[in-house]
Specification:
single chain; mainly alpha; two-stranded antiparallel sheet; 10 helices; about 5% strand; extended; Peptidase_M13_dom_2; Peptidase M13 N-terminal domain-containing protein; metalloendopeptidase activity; Peptidase_M13
């Protein structure tokens, strides 16, 4: 699936909580359209249609929390099943055209990986939205937004408050062991020439530990 213009799908789906954002988004797009020569009323109507379309995209977009597990995203299936799920185009023709330069024959039995399956039953989808809405408490927005803008400063405050220095040597030792194992593995790589191996080792030594 692709991305959305606004930061999260909830910006589109939770219209009450995001009324100001959607209004500002519409105003911004309308101003850009006018600067490009559009008439104000018709431009605003067209930009609202764009937002309505993006909202429909948001409705069928999986939230980030459902896309963290690679195994859950990995759906291997024959092309014929993909065709049944998404019949709006000929997937066999699409992949045949993509493979034309290497003369690769594509059959309905060809196995492909689909990372986004069609949306679940509408009742399950409604429940998902409710759960998502419940998870997005106001304090979560406050913490996330503040952390995005002042992340390093917040990190420094956190360190001063809870870090007493005893775990840093352990973390540094772990990092050094990883670096040492990496350099040891370099010696066993038969496909890498000495110049490249030396460069990789120098790169490993040049890594700065930000513990």
């Amino acid at each position: 699936q692709g991305g959305l213009t606004l930061p999260t799908r909830d910006n589109y789906l939770n219209k009450t909580a995001n009324e100001k954002i959607l209004s500002a988004y519409l105003d911004y797009m309308t101003k850009i359209g006018i600067l490009l020569g559009g008439e104000e009323n018709s431009t605003r109507a067209q930009m609202q249609a764009v937002i309505d379309f993006e909202t429909k995209l948001a409705e069928i977009t999986s939230p980030p929390e459902d896309r963290r597990d690679e195994e859950k995203l990995y759906h291997l299936m024959p092309l014929s099943e993909v065709q049944n799920m998404a019949p709006f185009m000929s997937w066999r023709d699409y992949f045949t055209d993509a493979m034309r330069s290497i003369s690769r024959k594509v059959t309905p039995k060809e196995m492909v990986v689909v990372y986004v399956r069609p949306k679940m039953h509408i009742k399950d989808f409604a429940k998902l939205l409710l759960d998502l809405k419940e998870a997005k408490k106001p304090w979560r927005y406050c913490v996330t937004d503040t952390n995005n803008v002042l992340g390093f400063a917040i990190g420094a405050m956190f360190v001063r408050e809870v870090f007493h220095g005893n775990s840093k040597p352990m973390a540094e030792e772990m990092i050094n062991e990883v670096r040492s194992a990496f350099k040891t593995n370099l010696l066993n790589l038969t496909w890498m020439d000495k110049e490249t191996r030396d460069s990789a080792e120098n790169k490993a030594d040049a890594i700065t530990d930000m513990i």
